[in-house]
Automatic annotation (TrEMBL):
Assigned protein family: Belongs to the inositol phosphokinase (IPK) family.
SUPFAM superfamilies: SAICAR synthase-like
Entry EC no(s): 2.7.1.140, 2.7.1.151
The protein's name: Inositol polyphosphate multikinase
Organism encoding this protein: Mucuna pruriens
């Protein structure tokens, strides 16, 4: 039986007549293909995952082809990407979606889309920091800042949200989160992000625009800390060049994580 993902923190949600992703009980995530070049771009990227060598391929959700399903908005049969449900098996996941890159658009986009992205980039931490937190949710405390709040964060605000993400008192309206889970969670996250950075320092296959790093862990369970890349509707060929836009944002995100870990010893 298909259902709406309970712990989705960013993107269009399949509620109130909106076209969005669905999941089942077998660990599959069904993402509706967009009816434009973005849909075909993302499908083409997933079908070319075999071009990405291991261990870098482990950063991407498993791809199980496409399937036509009844759309969540009631519009009838619609093609969906069949992907790995990254949150399957987590009882009470804490989830964070971090959009990487100071620029979330590429020159092949329409003028209207570029202007829309520029507006968001300019009024968020994307341009000054090279990344922005698109969504975050703690399933234990039910702390879930609004997207509008997250879009307006300063560098200090970003650091505070990151600290709350790994704290046991995230739901408390205070500027002193306890970072109770920071060592274990961000220690693992840092290790994976450094591995990802090493790949981006060499890879010249793709440029990843408007792509996110998804971080997941479970405060109540023994589940592993998960770090994956998601959202590939704006991936373009790199033409044998380094993706400095993504790499720069990733390095900035790594520095924030390092600074939080370093603060634990002060």
């Amino acid at each position: 039986m298909l259902k709406v993902p309970e712990h989705q923190v960013a993107g269009h949600k399949a509620r109130n007549g909106v076209l969005g992703p669905l999941i089942d009980d077998s660990g599959k995530f069904y993402k509706p293909l967009q009816n434009n070049t973005r849909g075909s771009t993302e499908q083409s990227f997933y079908t070319s995952l075999c071009d990405i060598p291991q261990p870098a391929r482990s950063f991407f959700p498993a791809f199980h082809g496409t399937r036509v399903l009844d759309a969540s908005d009631g519009s009838g049969p619609h093609p969906h990407l069949v992907l790995e449900d990254l949150l399957s098996g987590y009882a009470k996941p804490s989830v964070m979606d971090v959009k990487i890159g100071s620029r979330t658009w590429h020159l092949g986009e329409s003028e209207d889309y570029i202007n829309k992205c520029l507006e968001k980039d300019r009024h968020s931490s994307s341009i000054p920091l090279g990344f922005r937190i698109s969504g975050v949710k703690d399933s234990v405390s039910h702390w879930e800042p609004t997207r509008k709040f997250l879009q307006c964060l300063s560098a200090e605000g970003v650091a505070l949200v990151l600290k709350k993400f790994v704290s046991s008192n995230a739901d408390v309206d205070a500027s002193d989160p306890d970072c109770a889970f920071a060592k274990e969670v961000f220690g693992n996250v840092l290790e994976r992000l450094v591995e990802l950075k090493e790949w981006f320092e060499d890879q010249t296959l793709y440029h990843f625009y408007s792509c996110s790093v998804l971080v997941v862990y479970d405060k109540k369970g023994k589940g592993k800390v998960l770090v994956k890349l998601i959202d590939f509707a704006h991936v373009v060929a790199a033409n044998a060049t380094i993706d400095h836009n993504f790499l720069g944002g990733l390095c900035s995100f790594i520095k924030f994580v390092k600074d939080i870990l370093a603060s634990l010893h002060q």
